[in-house]
Each structure stands twice: as structure tokens, then as C-alpha cells.
Amino acid sequence: NNSFFQPTTLKKLGLCIQLDHAPGDRCYNPHPSSSDDFVVIDVHGVHEIVLNFCGCVSAQICYKQLLHTRWYPATTSDPCTAVVFTLMEHFHLLLFKSKVSAYEFCHSLARQNNNAGLIATLHSMRMVHEWHHLRQLQCAGRGNDPNGIHATTTCELAVQCPACLLTCPHPGKNIPQGWEDGSPWVRWKYALFIVIDANFRLKRKAVSSDNVDPSLNSGWAYFVEEAAYKAYLAHQAGIKQDCSTCVSHNAINLTDTKSSYGLAATGVGTVDC
């Protein structure tokens, strides 16, 4: 304003993006986004722009036009927000390497526009869940199945542990044929050693349910199918747990005495090879 710098947006500067057309090509039937407001979330912040969807005869549906531009829409119905693929890939790496949460990551992006925390933060948890789900399907090659992704079977998306293929015995893969016919002095080398460990202090509160927040690939990867798992737990509820005879190990003996009110899980156990 010829006196001092003041914040502005790309929309106020006149930036208008036309989808489904090459740069410089004119669309003769542009359809503005809802309320003529569109928000794009990128690695360097949250931006307001003017965006027009293509309304030509050969045009794709709105969310597909965004995907062709490598923008992930927040919804498939009248999208007004999108996240660029670069940001999704960036957060995907940060999630695994630095364990940053989506909540903290979204607040960090918002502070790039206003570090005083005066603007509303856009949360993209659902987009992150969908992105991870689609990446799993892509890595497993499910898009090439003529029957579609719904033909995915149990554990088909799980990646087999590479160390397990080297250290754990697998008949037909890494141990010789006829190993079971050898002498006991030879067969012991092909035994599978299993260890069990549990944490009875790791609690998870019952803040949601499968009906409110359903899984996108329940039973397809590393977690069992929810309904079958709960049915098994209900069937095992009346079976009494064997008490430990070790006087210095009361973890198992005290598991049923702890309060489980308001908790979805009171502990976790693992079986490792």
C-alpha cells in the first residue's frame, strides 16, 4: 500500500487456475468452485486461490480433475480444499521417520502463514487415512485386479518381513527338501523359535468405535478383522486365565483385577519370531 508491507493472498493478487486445460488454453465453459473459494495446502503454507473446474463435454468429474493435477481433494462432493501430492508424500515420510502427528503438522503449516496462531487450522486426518490406504493398495498392485480392490483377501496387503525370510525357517523357501526326515541332531536347526511379550499398562481409551470411524482395509494388512476379533473375545470371555506360579511375576495374575472402565484396550501383546 506504498507505506508498509501487509499480508495478502494469492486470490487477492488475481491468481486463477483452470483445470483440465493446458496453461494458456481457454476453457469456454468454466465452473467456479463453491462460493468461489478454494484452499490449497502445500509444503510452504495454506493458500487461497480462485479455481475453475472444466465444464466442457469431455470433462471429468470435479475430484478427478483435481487428481489429474496431483491435488488430493478433501471430499468427492463439491470439493473446496485440496492437498498437493508433494505435501502428502512429505508428511508420509515425516510420519514414519520423526513420528510427527497430523495435528502438529497441520498447525505448523498454518503458522507459516501466520505465526501468531490467529488463523484457523485446517485438519486433514481423513485425507491422510485415505492416502495411506490408497498407497497400500498401489504397492500391493490391487489396481491391476480385474475384480477390483474389493476382491482383496485377508493379509494380502501385508509385506512379509525380509529378515524373517533369512532367519526363520520356511519350507520350500530357505530350508532344504526332506529336512523333516533327518536325524534329531539335524532337525533342530530348522526349529522356529517364538517369543511372547506383553505390556499390561498400555491403555487405549474408548473415544471412538468402528461404526463412527470404520477401517478402510480391516483385515487386509496387519490388523485382524474387527467383527471376527470381537466375536473371538466374546467366546473366550468365560475362560479362566491360568495363574503364573512365579512369585516375582504377577503381571499376568493382576491383569483381570485392573479397571477397564472407559477403555477400549488395557494392554497389548505380541508374538515375535
Question: Any chance you could write out the topology, listing elements then pairs?
Answer:
Blueprint lengths: L15 E3 L11 E3 L5 E5 L2 E10 L7 H7 L2 E3 L7 E4 H13 L4 H12 L11 H15 L22 H6 L16 H4 L7 E5 L4 E2 L20 H11 L26 E3 L2 E5 L1
Parallel strand pairs: 1-4, 3-6
Antiparallel strand pairs: 2-4, 3-4, 5-6, 7-10, 8-9
What can you see in these coordinates?
Strand 3 and strand 4 form a beta hairpin. The strands form three sheets. Strands 1, 2, 3, 4, 5 and 6 form a six-stranded mixed β-sheet that branches. Strands 7-10 form a two-stranded antiparallel sheet. It has a two-stranded antiparallel ribbon with strand order 8-9. The chain is elongated, with a radius of gyration of 27 Å. With 273 residues, the chain is an alpha+beta fold. Helices cover 25% and strands 16% of the residues. The model has no long low-confidence stretch (mean pLDDT 85). The relative contact order is 0.08. It contains seven helices and ten strands. The longest helix is centred in the middle third of the chain and has 15 residues, at 125-139.
Q: What helical percentage do the residues reach?
A: 10-25%
Number of helices: 7
Number of strands: 10
Q: What composes the largest sheet?
A: 6 strands, mixed
C-alpha Rg (nearest Å): 27 Å
Strand % is: 15-25%
What is the ordering of alpha helices and beta strands? EEEEHEEHHHHHEEHEE
- Mean of residue pLDDT values: 85
Overall body shape? elongated
User: First CA to last CA: what distance?
Assistant: 67 Å
**SS content category:** alpha+beta
Name the poorly predicted regions.
none
